[in-house]
User: Which sequence fits this backbone?
């Protein structure tokens, strides 16, 4: 049997590795458009900041034992009926047949349709090549002092930190107010304070109207007569699923344009599977498909797609939307639904914020965590959690306790029953995740505030 | 209604606080033998190390709004029939009647029955008064240079670090080989290396036979002609439940001498409840009672005892034995069953060790974690996990992910389905807890090694 995989990032390589792990006999080929199989795209900001000096170290792996990795093979079309794929290399076009096909074509960055958005000096950051291009630009123009970042989501803020770390004067232009609309506004404001503490300028509630040339440099316009000079502009306004191949091949797509798959990662075409940022993702809380592009999900789905392609019957158990970001000395993490998302999904949400020390205050270095729990007022069910706190205060793995609780449909109050670890350097006898659960329950008991 | 609580540590105070939270009308009195209500006993080593300079800051809380806290009231007897308690204060004996009684009498340290074990200069460390006594001894004898610690469990090793931190030359005498038998030997040896790296001497597989006076100092003997000179000796050889009052009152005790309670924390006597280190604890993995004295459990059980005393119907959901300890720069955590414990409980355990970076290796500061997963070979069920790694690598909250998984009877393989957080400074797209799960599954699939 021959399995072809289109896309050499998280989903595609995870599928290939899983196939190799389960079955040494099947022939597995991965076709990727560039030369970077299984690169850590999440690491690009750290390469550009200088914290990861060698771009080569961003490779998740460099050995692909028993997997035929076809670099610089851009797939041009898929024929699901004939089980055939056409790919272009630098100098020729080839046809490859398959028994099973796995699509892991990922996502592509969205450049807003604005005048000047494609000028030299305006970059997106989505691939290893993008990162090398930006790095070249910075190295060949050491006089570059100012950067404007358009967009204040994960990539935008991580790049703000990265370029500030590299010594540039950074301005972030955020359409949302406050920045980082993926968390509650109270925490978005805390992130703004952290940015300002590190001399990053922020313009919130601000829409870019154009990018112009300005005396060998650039100017990012955001209103009549208003604009920010920039030697470098990063556009980080989001991504969309890369589904041109799937669409042309007649595969069913969902409302958000992502490939429709079932929980075994089967597409609408027989013998064609898909995983990662290009597919609709089963949301475990919403109990419906959503588009939630995350590396963790890509790895999980790729692994399942590989298993399904071999005839296995494992299902993707769903995402609960767990995410974490480090911003200078601050860590922001979330899992599950925000209040507004829960409301839209038909729950009766109550969100309560509480504070707790990350470990016993008498032990040196205790720092405060802020926790926001969202639960259903009627049923007491845990719906989501957000934590903001300092780096090295176990914020990331604390959100994972909630993520595991959400996975099991726990009640907020039930979190108090979990036997969590404690010693004074790490926690309190009630961990902050439990203190927050108790604060939520106390408020729920008081009834609905008017 | 009047509720009396005997014991002012974690269990007793948690019960009192819960009663106060749920019902402002009930009269609540806490009787405690000493003057330290709700002190953090786990913090004693950090006071003695000097890291927590003020002993007063070890108080979990100092406000007991609406709770009648009776310090220096040593309860002498309980009459469950007449619903009456006799207590002695410094100068008199009083009788108190109750409608409901909650016992949180805790545990007492065990001094092995050895010649010289009660000599001046030989200490146990279990109460605030013990800690103040040891501190006085060190302050009034600044010439004290050497300490011997008998016992290599939690208290023993934490005290080794504490006294080494304070500048003493420390020797730990451990009956087990290696130290810290509560984890697998491979990890016990790693802890020995950490102790030795910090100039703590260790004698393993070594039984103390006597303590002798030696020229104004002490000598801890451990064999014919063998002994260690010490200015200070700490005995940390374990504890037993403090159940004299319960026994005298005719309450049923379990095999290990702890008070028998149901999962609502009811004792065998009507209107008498008990919680914390003095009771048998429901073990969620073993599905039977065990004696597992832990502060986290005391808080949970105390809270439930308080609720039951008010007529509530919440049950204690059980312990899975989650524990964590910091030893210099090393963190050791466990949850669930060790291989030998699982075997004794009738499982068919397989334990697999794996290693993983705490976060992406390309991001500065990545350190290696060692994870040992124990699962059932037949069913694939997760039975337990141990993690050892450096401080500040989120070891404690990673064990909590397993603890939460154990709480929900997950399979080892199921851990891969949990939507855990990822960004390069915190983890990998598969968290180390998942990499370890995959390593376990790969070994399970290979079948039973001969």
Assistant:
């Amino acid at each position: 049997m021959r399995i072809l995989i289109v896309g050499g990032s998280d989903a595609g390589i995870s599928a290939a590795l899983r196939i190799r792990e389960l079955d040494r006999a099947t022939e597995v080929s991965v076709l990727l458009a560039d030369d970077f199989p299984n690169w850590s795209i999440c690491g690009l900001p750290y390469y550009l900041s200088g914290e990861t000096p060698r771009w080569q170290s961003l490779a998740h792996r460099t050995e692909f034992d028993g997997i035929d990795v076809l670099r610089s093979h851009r797939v041009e079309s898929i024929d699901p009926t004939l089980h055939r794929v056409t790919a272009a290399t630098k100098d020729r076009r080839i046809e490859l047949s398959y028994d099973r096909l796995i699509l892991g074509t990922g996502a592509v960055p969205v450049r807003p349709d604005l005048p000047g958005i494609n000028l030299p000096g305006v970059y997106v950051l989505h691939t290893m090549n993008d990162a090398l291009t930006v790095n070249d630009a910075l190295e060949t123009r050491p006089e570059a002092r100012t950067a404007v970042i358009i967009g204040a989501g994960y990539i935008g803020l991580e790049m703000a930190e990265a370029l500030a770390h590299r010594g540039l004067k950074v301005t972030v232009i955020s359409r949302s107010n406050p920045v980082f609309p993926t968390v509650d506004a109270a925490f978005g404001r805390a992130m703004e304070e952290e940015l300002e503490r590190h001399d990053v300028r922020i313009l919130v509630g601000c829409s870019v109207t154009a990018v112009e040339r300005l005396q060998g440099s650039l100017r990012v316009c955001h209103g009549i007569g208003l604009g920010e000079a920039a030697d470098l502009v990063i556009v980080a306004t989001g991504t969309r699923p890369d589904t041109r191949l799937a669409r042309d091949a007649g595969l069913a797509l969902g409302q958000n344009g992502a490939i429709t798959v079932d929980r075994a990662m089967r597409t609408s075409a027989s013998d064609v599977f898909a995983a990662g940022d290009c597919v609709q993702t089963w949301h475990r809380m919403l109990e419906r498909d959503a588009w939630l592009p995350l590396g963790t999900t890509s790895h999980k789905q790729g692994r399942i797609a590989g298993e399904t392609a071999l005839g296995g019957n494992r299902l993707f158990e769903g995402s609960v939307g767990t995410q974490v970001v480090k911003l200078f000395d601050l860590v922001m993490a979330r899992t599950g639904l925000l209040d507004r998302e829960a409301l839209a999904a038909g729950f009766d949400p109550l969100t309560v914020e509480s504070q707790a020390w990350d470990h016993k205050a008498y032990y040196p270095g205790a720092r405060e965590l802020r926790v926001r729990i969202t639960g259903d007022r009627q049923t007491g069910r845990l719906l989501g959690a957000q934590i903001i706190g300092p780096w090295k205060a176990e914020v990331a793995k604390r959100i994972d306790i909630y993520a595991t609780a959400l996975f099991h449909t726990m009640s907020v109050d039930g979190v108090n029953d979990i036997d969590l670890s404690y010693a004074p350097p790490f926690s309190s006898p009630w961990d902050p995740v439990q203190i927050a659960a108790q604060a939520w329950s106390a408020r729920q008991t008081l009834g609905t505030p008017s």
Residues 332 and 388 of chain B are 5 Å apart (CA to CA). The mean pLDDT of chain B is 96. The first strand of chain B starts at residue 2 and ends at 6. Chain B is about 25% helix and 25% strand.
